[in-house]
Design goal:
The structure holds two protein chains of two kinds. Chain A is α+β, with helices and mostly antiparallel strands. Chain A contains 14 helices and six strands. By secondary structure, chain B is α+β, with helices and mostly antiparallel strands. The chains are: A alpha+beta, B alpha+beta.
Chain lengths: ~375, ~150
């Protein structure tokens, strides 16, 4: 069989897309409102924003709706949208201790200053299906809370500050970077700077970040951290006002932050703590903690463990890259596959196995030895 | 205490205001057909949010935030606004409102009052959220007495 050029009508592609849209409208229920998604499925929209590297809650809700709940597809839509926009500016670097926290727990220090604030979570309850939700919404269970007047939100002392005050954490030199690497504008080179690592981890795919972080905990790495704290809250987004020159707040971005204490003191002359750090848009504690483990692992710069190899980690965690590469495999590869077929047939004919092999493929030892195809950038 | 007459404070209050409120005031300001030129069209743009990693105090790029800025000149007075998200109408209205207050337009008292309301509402929401969070603060009980 020779090479055959084929073409197919755009109309068929449009029909397939129409059928996809019909699925979203299937059933007798009301169509999902973007506001509903924004209000009620914050974890989904947060994941899309964090992996898309774009904080835009309402558009994230739209993207989730359009992608029918596929978070990576939604993140892709957000990245595609952002690629059409100009950048107004970079914000002044904000200190995360400015966060207006709605939740802060410290697994390391029971009596952390400011207290353990559980916030909105079901972490400490049983995971059981609530069948009452099937028939509608129950009333606001906090309606009758007798809230004390706590005044304005307090700035919570971070564990980093606590350790630094005790001399257990070194006072860093002035950072030698004013203008951190921006991986949305320049490719990551290896070994990467830590700022590039943090940016890539912050927009990594949640599942991949979780899985690779978990690999270190499962023994494929040396980092088994104690979490200093996990915080959920809002960080100010500021610009320099063009008229006054003052730093002014445009909005606040919901973020999740995690810090881990890593016991690698035996490797150092001065026994202080090493740290891992995680920060991501939206409420996504699993990802922030996974990022923390990976940040700490990458700082070890090992060759033997996957999580300590920055190149391996950064090459595999980006959802857009993995989504694109994995999903492109389902697109037509007729020419590629025809070439592979021709190659195998030629090899078999040269070896005289063309006829015999049809009866018993197990006899074809060469097929076991040689890879017949590899995904590549030229695919 | 925030002051809507202060340009920087006003910027933050406009950014926190409802789009419908800004649009209503902008329409009222434009009713007399004052000379208006749009210096910067309201178009969604990006701010790269930088954060300082707390251990090494090293800045890094967390990700971009979608905002919509706009700038106008209203009868010789400039106005600038930036609102979160994709919100062209709110941004343009906000810039007009900013310029109107700078020009001491006759609607200024009403605008200032609305911006003060926005500030109060924002503060109330923050205090409410903080009080709710504090309501979930753990009070550990030592178990020594039970041993």
């Amino acid at each position: 069989m020779g090479y055959v050029a084929v073409t197919a009508g755009e109309e068929i592609i449009e029909r397939a897309a129409d059928l996809f849209e019909k699925q979203r409208l299937a059933g007798d229920s009301e169509g999902l409102d973007v506001d509903q998604l924004d209000d009620q499925l914050g974890r989904l929209t947060a994941q899309a924003m964090s992996e898309g590297g774009l904080y835009a809650p309402r558009l994230a809700a739209l993207a989730v709706k359009q992608a029918q709940g596929d978070t990576v597809e939604a993140a892709f839509l957000l990245r595609a949208y952002r690629s059409t926009l100009e950048r107004f500016d970079e914000t002044p670097a904000v200190d995360p201790s400015e966060m207006i926290a709605t939740r802060r727990v410290s697994p390391a220090f029971k009596d952390v200053p400011g207290g353990q604030i559980l916030g909105a979570t079901k972490d400490y309850t049983q995971r059981l299906l609530d069948f009452d939700l099937v028939d509608g919404e129950s009333a606001d269970p906090t309606e009758d809370w007798d809230l004390a007047d706590e005044g304005d939100p307090e700035r919570l002392t971070t564990v980093t500050e606590l350790l630094r005050s005790e001399g257990l954490l070194h006072e860093p030199d002035e950072p030698d970077v004013d203008d951190p690497t921006d991986t949305t504008r320049e490719s990551v080179t290896h070994p990467p700077e830590r700022d590039a690592v943090l940016q890539e981890l912050a927009r990594g795919e949640t599942g991949a970040v979780t899985a690779l972080g978990y690999s270190a905990l499962r023994g494929y790495g040396q980092v088994h951290p104690t979490l200093a704290e996990v915080r959920v809250g809002r960080l100010p987004v500021r610009i320099e006002h063009p008229y006054t020159g003052d730093e002014v707040t445009v909005t606040h971005a919901d973020v999740t932050e995690s810090e881990a204490v890593v016991p690698v003191y035996e490797k150092r002359e001065d026994p202080q703590f090493a740290f891992g750090y995680g920060l991501t848009f939206g409420r996504n504690e699993r990802k922030a903690i996974g990022m923390t483990v990976l940040d700490a692992s990458i700082q070890l710069d090992g060759d033997d463990e996957p999580a300590e190899n920055a190149e391996f980690v950064l090459d595999t965690i980006d959802g857009m890259d993995s989504f694109g590469f994995i999903e492109h495999l389902k697109l037509p590869h007729y020419v590629t596959f025809q070439s592979i077929l021709d190659r195998i047939r030629a090899i078999r004919e040269r070896g005289g196995t063309a006829e015999a092999g049809r009866d018993d493929p197990a006899d074809d030892e060469s097929a076991d030895r040689q890879p017949i195809a590899e995904a590549s950038d030229n695919d | 205490m925030v002051d809507p007459h202060d340009r920087s404070d006003r910027f933050e209050l406009i950014a926190a205001s409802e789009a419908a409120t800004l649009a209503r005031f902008a329409n009222e300001v434009l009713e007399d057909d004052p000379p208006l030129s749009v210096r910067q069209e309201p178009r969604p743009q990006l701010l790269m949010q930088r954060v300082e990693e707390p251990v090494e105090r090293r800045p890094f790029n967390l990700g971009e935030v979608l905002v919509t800025p706009a700038e106008v000149d209203l009868a010789g007075h400039r106005g600038f606004a930036m609102v979160p998200g994709k919100a062209e109408r709110a941004a343009l209205s906000g810039a007009i409102v900013d310029a109107a207050v700078a020009a001491d337009h006759e609607r200024t008292p009403a605008i200032v009052s609305a911006l003060e309301d926005a500030a109060a509402r924002q503060r109330e929401q923050r205090q409410r959220a903080w009080a709710e969070s504090k309501h979930t603060a753990v009070e550990f009980e030592t178990m020594e007495d039970q041993q």
